[in-house]
Amino acid sequence: MSHTELITTIILFCWPPLMVTLERFFPYTKGLKLFREGFWLDFFWYTIFQSYFLKILIFDWIIAPAKTALGLADSGYISSWPIWALVLLFLVTHDFYIYWFHRLQHNTFLWRTHEAHHSVKTVDWLAGSRSHAIEIIINQTIEFAPIIILLDVKTAAIVVPIKALLDATWGMWIHSNVDVRSGKLQYFINGPEMHQWHHSNHREVFYKNYSTKFAFWDWIFGTGFLPGLSPFKYEFLKPQQYGLPYEYPREFFLQTAFAFKRFDVKKVEHNLGIKPYVEWPNALVNFFKESASDTSKAAK
Ligand SMILES: [Zn+2]
Ligand SMILES: [Zn+2]
Q1: Are 133 and 62 in contact (CB under 8 A)?
Q2: Of the four listed, 141, 211, 278, 286, which is most buried by Cβ atoms within 10 Å?
Q3: How far is CA 152 from CA 55, 83, 100, 157, 191, in A?
């Protein structure tokens, strides 16, 4: 493990406890539970399982062979730039791309690759991890291929982990249930204030707030939405509900399949063969709830 990888990994592991602590002390929506519905799905299946396999697919099976096939020598076309300038370049260009791709996903058939992300009913630090495999493959290939192609191996080994860390921490931050008041900064930097609205199940904001890191794309291209922004008085207006306005599978493989082929969600999830498998996280939560209430009853 390189020096950069070590540092970025340490920061990455410290970030979730920081987000969770902020969520406990300054909640945007009060009363949200850490182990909420879909916690296991987002944590195990999307964050660990899917990320592990997609990283291999994107870097080793797509980008590396593409570079070889295209006959691109490892000359490192812009490797002489300072690291901060490289990070800034890839940050801004990718963020511009992601704004338009995200907008396209909300407006075309590509919605199928994005609905998983919007299926989270509790938007918190972990919610952003729920993204369909197709969405990740497209976005991360477009994100990391230029870095690998334009830089030599040594420089890419510094820029890639920094960029990946920024994605991960920023992703957790904009989804976090933290009541931040950043005032005029919201014209420049995206945060939970605008992204919580993007996830709300309200018709008027479905086509708003596409930005990920820099909020100015939304304001430049006319898709910014934030009640109370002007004249910067907070009216404590908040979205009331999150998630999708239609039936969506609760399980990882069914969610992945749903983008390719529509099916009757209730019928499939109630199929006797897979019902216990779909239900077990809820059954576990209910079991703990019931035993907790039994204990409190017994105590009375
Ligand atoms: Zn979206
Ligand atoms: Zn999101």
Answers
A1: no
A2: 211
A3: 19, 13, 29, 9, 33
Closest CA to 264 of 249, 274, 245, 244: 249
Q: How far is the CA of 253 from the centre of ligand 2 (A)?
A: 20
What is the structure's pLDDT at 34?
92
The alpha carbon of 33 and the centre of ligand 2 are apart by a number of angstroms equal to: 19
**31 CA distance to ligand 2 centroid (A)?**
20
Tell me, in angstroms, the distance from the centre of ligand 2 to residue 117's CA. Answer: 6
Distance (angstroms) between ligand 2 centre and the Cα of 3 equals 31
Asked if omega into 281 is within 30° of 0 (cis), the reply is no
Averaged over successive runs of 10 residues, the pLDDT of the chain (300 residues) comes to 91 97 94 91 96 97 90 82 97 98 97 96 96 98 95 94 97 95 89 92 86 96 81 61 92 95 91 78 74 67
Q: Residue 204: its pLDDT value, please? A: 75
pLDDT given at position 297: 66
CA of 124 to the centre of ligand 2 (A): 10
Distance (Å) from CA 217 to ligand 2 centroid? 16
